[in-house]
Amino acid sequence: MLKEIAPDGVIVCTPTEVHLEPVLQTLDSGAHVLVEKPITTSLEEARQIIEKASATRKQVLVGHHRRHYGILHKTSSY
Predict the structure, then answer these.
(1) pLDDT (tens digit, 9 = 90+) per residue, 11-64?
(2) Nearest of 4, 43, 3 to residue 27 by alpha carbon
(3) What are the domain boundaries of the chain?
């Protein structure tokens, strides 16, 4: 499906335990990836993603929000 649609990027929003395969498949398809944190459950899987991103020359971004970060709540009142 990724090859047919050929998106520029894909957001991976799966349980952490199954992030690896969709991230690798997306990189193989030629698209960039935004994956929810944490990137994986193991250092070995993270290394696989880094190696694949390097080999495919695509970016992998890890979404990290600070919804409960106090200073952000204070700034929202301005």
Answers:
(1) 999 999 999 999 999 999 999 999 999 999 999 999 999 999 999 999 999 997
(2) 3
(3) 2-75
Fold of 2-75: Rossmann fold (3.40.50)
14: left (phi over 0), alpha (psi -120 to 50) or beta: beta
Place of tokens 């080999």: 55
Neighbouring residues of 24: CB distance < 8 A, sequence distance ≥ 6:
48, 49, 52
Residue 42: phi and psi, rounded to 5, are -145, 155
Contact 40, 20 (CB under 8 A): yes
Q: Which of 31, 21, 38, 73 is nearest to 53 (CA)?
A: 31
Predicted TM-score of the model (pTM): 0.79
Residue 68, pLDDT above cutoff 90: no
Strand (E) positions, the chain?
9-12, 32-36, 60-63
